[in-house]
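Q: My hope is that you can spare some time for a protein that puzzles me. Underneath my words sits a plain record pairing an amino acid chain with its backbone structure tokens. Those tokens are not coordinates but codes from a learned vocabulary of shapes. Thank you; the sequence and its tokens follow:
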Amino acid sequence: MDKADIYELLDSRGIGYEVTEHPAVFNMAEVSAIVLPYPDANAKSLFVRDDKRQNYYLITVQGHKRVDLKAFRRTHHTRGLSFASADELMDILGLIPGAVTPLGVLNDAERSVQVFLDQEFLAEPGLIGVHPNDNTATVWLQAEDLVSLIREHGNPVHLVEI
């Protein structure tokens, strides 16, 4: 699914959303240089794999947070973790580095990627900002709607404290 497909899906499901178009951004430093309407709801996502390349995880947190992969591993009882390669990212989620988003999981044909979403996104106002499978825009929607879309697709979603 590309950006247009994501918008079409959201429209077809009657999910309310708002779009902020912006220049392509590849990291949080570049994101901080653009004006976003809901900066506290902006998300960053990490696509990681275990050391056997058998399990893949998408970890999504608020943009200002850091993710300690060693602590994540201990808390969630995974094998050693490292970032997935650009090839793995493209093969599994159909995304390029810098465009990692939970919406990319909708491209996971095997439904093998486990999603870990920072539960703080569900607190009022419940808004989350993610790329629509393209890093030239941010789509703002209710975190509960995002979780529902991913679960309906068949990927597990874990709401966790990160």
User: Anything to note?
Assistant: The beta strands are 17-21, 43-50, 56-62, 81-83, 114-118, 127-130, 137-142, 157-160. Residues 143-153 form the longest helix (11 residues).
